[in-house]
Amino acid sequence: MKTIITNDYEDMSEKAAQIIIETVKEKPNAVLGLATGATPMGLYRRLVADHKEMGTSYKYVRTINLDEYVGLTKVNPQSYAYFMYENLFCHIDIALKNTYIENGTALDSMIECKRYDKMLNKLPRDIQLLGLGSNGHIAFNEPYTSFSSTTHIVNLAENTIKDNAIYFDNIEQVPRQAYTMGIKSIMKAKQIIILASGFKKAEIVSKLVQGNVDSALPASILHNHCNCILILDKEAASKL
Ligand code: PGA
Q1: Nearest to 183 by CA among 161, 213, 204, 210
Q2: Model confidence over 44-80: pLDDT tens digits?
Q3: Under a CB-based contact definition with an 8 Å cutoff, are residues 70 and 140 in contact?
Q4: FRET label pair with 7: which of 119, 154, 187, 198, CA 20 to 30 Å apart?
Q5: Which atom of ligand 1 lies closest to the CA of 35?
Q6: pTM for the structure as a whole
Q7: How many C-beta atoms lie closer than 10 Å to residue 199's C-beta?
């Protein structure tokens, strides 16, 4: 895993955006694995600005997202489908039919997980973007998730519910379950970019960079990926 330390959040976002923009320019039908959360918002702002100013086109790009809350429809403002639409898709020329995310209100969760895995196998990702949970999770793969996991439903960890409560009116509203891409599927992407920003990620970043692969820290599996870049801002790197 290559580690890049940048000055600040904006710089981190810029570095990651450049990698994605270059990929899309070289391969107009690239498949991008995308993430939600506070961390990638600056990156998405840059993709939008670049699209508007430089004309980078997403007409043939396909995107596959990591995770979605169980029970939220895609028109619910707290859903990750809605987040992606608001922060990226509605501002660029991507065809919405080429953007994939788990269906949080699927009637049969087993069938939904299988459907998503089939799609992941059909569409190998050129890049997978990841945030880092303060407990070391990637997507919603909480500590001790099997490294061989595929798409599944998780019971969210208490600290993840607390971390995500800022996006809801109160903590009771945070869904307790989510669909998530599994760790095995994440690892199949050709390139992985993992971002971490701010002092609240400094502790977990320092554990991650130590290099032991341990399911107690799900992101540590990324040490076994042959093309993974960890991009940090100074604050997230402050305990290295
Ligand atoms: P954040 O979440 O970007 O909102 O910090 C990261 C994550 O939990 O994966």
Answers
A1: 213
A2: 999 999 999 999 999 999 999 999 999 999 999 999 9
A3: no
A4: 187
A5: 9
A6: 0.96
A7: 12
